[in-house]
Amino acid sequence: MLFLITYYSVRGSTKEIAERIGSVLSTKITSPSTVEVLPMEQVTEPSKYNFVIIGSPVHNFVWVEYASSWLSTNGAALSNSAVWAFSVGTPFAVGKIAQRVLESKEEEQNLAAAISKNVKLEGHVLFNGRFLKSHATTKFNFWWRVFGGKFGDFRDWEKIDKWAGEIGDTIVQRIGKTV
Ligand SMILES: Cc1cc2nc3c(=O)[nH]c(=O)nc-3n(C[C@H](O)[C@H](O)[C@H](O)COP(=O)(O)O)c2cc1C
Fold first, then answer.
1. Which residues, including other chains, have CB under 8 Å from residue 45's CB and lie 6 or more apart?
2. Which segment of the chain is annotated as a signal peptide (predicted)?
């Protein structure tokens, strides 16, 4: 059995989350099955993987362009794989006004719906990532602050480990002793 965690990352936090998911899965899944963690640009044959987890940062409420294009190109090749997705934004790092905007946009569900246009999903989650002053323009940062936004690393490793662990358990149950 082959397992793939693939991601696109602009500033590194999605990459580190993908690596963490890979190490959690590796503790559940033993040889001869293999778990690969690869950036999207290094995935040459997506259809060969039985289980796939895909991740992207969120910019302006949608997956970044590279990741959405990759998914629309490769979605059909994943039709025989079980697929999960994770998005990395900063939904809880903003102030009350912006949070209301995000809630009204139902960011997590909207992202899942957009991803599902290209691939059948077993599950989707929106994680908090890292957002620093140096990541955006002075103008963007000014308005971010006005709306009560914060800067920092908001990743919740416990939540990430739990999500990955549950996927690992589902897979182990599904394929039993063959993993
Ligand atoms: C220009 C820009 C736009 C962003 N838009 C959103 C957004 O709409 N929703 C959200 O939850 N996070 C948003 N973020 C936060 C990033 O998605 C977050 O910082 C993420 O951790 C980045 O992942 P990376 O380090 O892998 O690039 C935005 C960040 C930038 C720089």
1. none
2. none
